[in-house]
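Notes to self after the Tuesday call (sharing in case useful).
The group wants a holo model before anyone commits to mutagenesis around the pocket. I volunteered. Ligand is iron/sulfur cluster. Logging inputs and output together so the record is complete.
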Amino acid sequence: MNAQPTPKPRVAVHKFSSCDGCQLAFLNLGEDLLALAERVDLVHFAEAGPLDPDTEVDVAFVEGSVSTPEDLERIRRIREHSRMLIAIGACATSGGIQGLRNGADAAQWLAQIYEHPEAIASLERSTPIASHVKVDFELWGCPVSGPQMLAVVNALLLGVAPRDNADKVCTE
Ligand code: SF4
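Result:
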């Protein structure tokens, strides 16, 4: 009797408020990314289009900060359906450039920029992912280092904890 092949780990890369630079760092891995795609099931890449946040995955990479009510609802659903959640880059780990507005009156800025500010759904503050859900690991940088992301995935595939595990706990 033939043994069933072991299912590949399912990996997703999600985008929140960000410039896409961290995803591009991952894409720029070139041949290394193709080799990785042989070993994991890349079920979602934000650059390729939207994914149902209720899709079950083993590892979710998350780029970007939480800046809108939709972001907040989506990150909670992603967390619920991801075995490991890894925040990548300065936006996801500290709020990023969007976080500069945290020291200002966001409502006043919206009124100055948009003709219909009431149409803009925005949270008062732009916050890191760990402010809302448990984050298993953080990779810092702007952008994050592609080889570093690869090293984390390889460590997880080998069943070992990546180095410098931040072991973040939700602070909300
Ligand atoms: Fe872009 Fe930097 Fe944010 Fe990555 S951390 S999404 S490169 S602004």
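Two things stood out.
The chain is about 30% helix and 15% strand.
The helical segments are 21-27, 31-39, 69-80, 89-94, 106-113, 146-157.
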